[in-house]
Specification:
aminotransferase; 40% helix; binds 4'-deoxy-4'-aminopyridoxal-5'-phosphate; pyridoxal phosphate; binds glutamine; transferase; single chain; Aspartate Aminotransferase, domain 2; alpha/beta; Methionine aminotransferase; PyrdxlP-dep_Trfase_small; 15 helices; Aspartate Aminotransferase, domain 1
Length: 378
């Protein structure tokens, strides 16, 4: 049959997850916690269900939740988004990203994507007839070459997608990076998707630079967030996007016919839970401790560690162990050592150094200790 996405295979997260299951492996592949969320949050959901929030939520999301998101963004990044017309609740960040692309990208439009890139961007562009134009992060420190970035902007460029903290490299954009981006887009009508799902997982006292902080970016950007990462509830698929009213108006035209609305009871629960900033401000330390435990466990291994400034992913170079391709190594790691990872080629890395795999450290300390003791045997 005719395919709009002839090259697309099943996502690497499903492939590695299934392989992990088949071999009863410790699953450090797909990014999700193997521990439970706060019981109070679960109670708030059942409470909302018992209170009768079991039918469609408003198309744009529960207002109380949008108000809390607006307050959070204003407190953290100093930008006011009107909850009425500048914030929409979505089914995870994935739906926000897909809907933004569908609402704005058509045949022949170019979208600049920084790679390695999270795997949902490229197919969403292509299925809408757009053309992904890649800017390769530097192979050693995963920084953007802004000269190269500027050279990719053409009269057809309609959108840029950035992701900070970055999955899979764990690097974050500095203030300088954001200013470079802002300056590069001056005098254009280019729209930005700023994928900030790991905004609350930043380490070593570094600060998350949200696109919403910068006047010249905020006016053209959809900032995308995800409660899945922040509250250990990836399975609830709840996210949002915030952006200027004019752009959000256009977004909602598509959103209403894409999903109409997201889970009602969960939105009610999150609106209450979000009122307490410690619920998200405690996350940096929580995951920094896990990163450090994981790294100390790997200190006697032959893996070379890439500095991780944020996210719950650790990228490692395995070239001191073997020079086989990353997907071959990752498969062997599951089969022979019962450890599942994500090979970096799952993030569109054609033509770059491939001796890298990503481990997710959003796991109990017990799991991390067990996994690293096995990884030290390689
Ligand atoms: N963007 C990035 C960079 C991610 O890692 C993820 C991971 N799940 C998403 C978007 C999607 O988030 P959600 O689960 O809320 O759809
Ligand atoms: N974002 C998660 C990761 O990078 C995976 C989400 C998914 O399976 N699509 O591992």
């Amino acid at each position: 049959i005719f395919s709009k996405l002839p090259k697309v295979k099943t996502t690497i997260f499903t492939t590695m997850g299934q392989l992990a299951q088949k071999h009863s492996a410790i699953n450090l592949s797909q990014g999700f916690p193997n521990f439970e969320p706060d019981q109070n949050l679960i109670n708030l959901v059942t409470q909302a269900m018992n209170q009768g929030y079991n039918q469609y939520a408003p198309m744009t999301g529960v207002l109380e939740l949008r108000e809390e998101i607006s307050k959070k963004i204003e407190q953290l990044y100093g930008r006011h988004y009107n909850p009425e017309n500048e914030i929409t609740i979505t089914i995870g960040a994935t739906q926000a990203i897909f809907t933004i692309i569908t609402a704005f990208i058509g045949h022949g439009d170019e979208v600049i994507v920084i790679k390695p890139a999270y795997d949902c961007y490229e197919p969403a562009i292509e299925v809408n007839g757009g053309i992904p134009v890649f800017v390769q992060l530097n192979n050693s420190d995963f920084k953007v070459d802004w000269e190269e970035f500027r050279s990719k902007i053409t009269s057809k460029t309609k959108m840029v997608i950035i992701n900070t903290p970055h999955n899979p490299s764990g690097t974050i954009f500095s203030t300088e990076d954001m200013l470079q981006l802002q300056q590069s887009l001056e005098k254009t009508d280019i729209i930005v998707i700023s994928d900030e799902v790991y905004e609350h997982i930043v380490f070593d006292g570094l600060e998350h630079e949200s696109a919403s902080k910068f006047d010249g970016l905020a006016s053209r950007t959809f900032v995308c967030g995800s409660f899945g990462k922040t509250f250990h509830i990836t399975g609830w698929k709840m996210g949002y996007c915030a952006g200027p009213a004019e752009l959000m108006h256009e977004f909602r035209k598509t959103h209403q016919f894409n999903v109409f609305s997201a889970d009602h009871a969960v939105q009610k629960a999150l609106a209450t839970y979000l009122k307490e900033p410690k619920h998200y401000l405690s996350l940096n330390k929580f995951y920094q401790d896990k990163r450090d435990l994981f790294l100390s466990g790997l200190s006697n291994s032959r893996f070379k560690i890439h500095p991780c400034q944020g996210t719950y992913f650790q990228l490692v170079d395995f070239s001191a162990i073997t020079l086989e391709p990353d997907d071959v190594f990752a498969e062997r790691l599951v089969k022979e050592y019962q450890i599942a990872s994500i090979p970096i080629s799952g993030f569109n890395t054609k033509g770059i150094d491939k001796h890298l795999v990503r481990f997710c450290f959003a796991k109990t300390n017990e799991t991390l200790v067990k996994a690293t003791s096995i990884l030290c045997k390689l």
